[in-house]
Amino acid sequence: MEAVQRMLFREPDGRRKGLLFSLFSFICILGWVYFGIVLNGPHNMLFLGIAFAFSGLAESLPPNRQRSAGVLRILGLGILIVFLALLIVVPESIWG
């Protein structure tokens, strides 16, 4: 438990990694808009885009904001856990 807490609430890695995660988020959101809304396809890219956005924001924080970065990382992981739970319980809500 201590190792997980140390990993989640560590110092943010910097703006470069934050911008990379934000770019992934932007690509996933654009993919969701095209495939999910325009083509009426699956909505899995939305969950990935939101999770990447939280991670990108966490890594872009100043080095002294470890607690805030940890909370944002937990939110990103929580989004992915909700996504997996929805895939198991009601896959038709994700895959259309």
Task: Reconstruct the topology from this structure.
Layout: H1 2-8, H2 15-38, H3 44-60, H4 66-89, H5 91-95
How would you describe this protein?
The protein has 96 residues and is mainly α. Helix content is 80%, strand content 0%. The chain is built from five helices and no strands. The protein has helices at residues 2-8, 15-38, 44-60, 66-89, 91-95. The longest helix is centred in the first third of the chain and has 24 residues, at 15-38. The N and C termini lie far apart (37 Å). The mean pLDDT is 91.
Query: What is the distance, rounded to the nearest whole angstrom, between the alpha carbons of the first and last residues?
Result: 37 Å
Low-confidence stretches: none
**Number of distinct helices:** 5
Strand content is: under 5%
Helix-strand pattern: HHHHH
